[in-house]
User: Which sequence fits this backbone?
C-alpha cells in the first residue's frame, strides 16, 4: 500500500473522531505486516484526562485482534493546517511494538506529509532494554 493511500485512510477515519472538547479530529491508519489496515480515532471524555489518542486507539485495536506486527503508521488531523505528530504518550506506546526504523507519516488537513522513523520521534529510549520481542 502506498503512503498516500494510508494517509487517506487516516483522514477518512478522522471523521469518526469523538472530540467535542478539542474539536481536533485525528485518525490513525496502522498498516500491519499481514496487509490489514487497522484504524483508530481519538476518543475524548468529559473527564478530560481520559482522552485516548487516535494512535493508541489503532494500536490497542490491532493488539485486541491478535495482530502485533506492524509495517507503517499514518496519522491525519483534519482540523489542523500543519502536520500533527504523535504526542509523547503515544510515542512511548508505539515504541513498545515497533523497531527503530519503523516509519510514521503525519499530516494535517491538507498539504505536507512528514515521515519520521520511530527512533527520530523517540530517541534515547531508556527502556529499550526491557523490550520483549
Ligand atoms: N490527539 C491525537 O489523537 N493524536 C495526536 O497525535 C495528537 C493529539 C488528540 C488527543 C485529543 O483528543 C486531541 O487530539 C487534542 O489534543
Assistant:
Amino acid at each position: 500500500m502506498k503512503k498516500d493511500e494510508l494517509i487517506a485512510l487516516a483522514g477518512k477515519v478522522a471523521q469518526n473522531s469523538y472530540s467535542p472538547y478539542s474539536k481536533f479530529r485525528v485518525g490513525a491508519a496502522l498498516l500491519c505486516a499481514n496487509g490489514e489496515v487497522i484504524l483508530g480515532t481519538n476518543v475524548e471524555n468529559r473527564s478530560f484526562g481520559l482522552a485516548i489518542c487516535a494512535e493508541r486507539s489503532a494500536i490497542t485495536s490491532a493488539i485486541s485482534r491478535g495482530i502485533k506486527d506492524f509495517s507503517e503508521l499514518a496519522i491525519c488531523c483534519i482540523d489542523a493546517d500543519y502536520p500533527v505528530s504523535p504526542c509523547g504518550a503515544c510515542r512511548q506506546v508505539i515504541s513498545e511494538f515497533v523497531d527503530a526504523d519503523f516509519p510514521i507519516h503525519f499530516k494535517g488537513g491538507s498539504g505536507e506529509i512528514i515521515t519520521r522513523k520511530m527512533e527520530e520521534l523517540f530517541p534515547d529510549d531508556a527502556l529499550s532494554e526491557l523490550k520483549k520481542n
About this structure: DSSP finds four helices and five strands in the chain. The pocket of tetrahydrodeoxyuridine is lined by residues 19, 22, 24, 26, 42, 44, 51, 53-55, 75, 84, 86-87, 90 (CB under 6 Å). The chain has one domain: 3-132. Residues 3-132 form a domain with the Cytidine Deaminase; domain 2 fold (CATH 3.40.140.10).
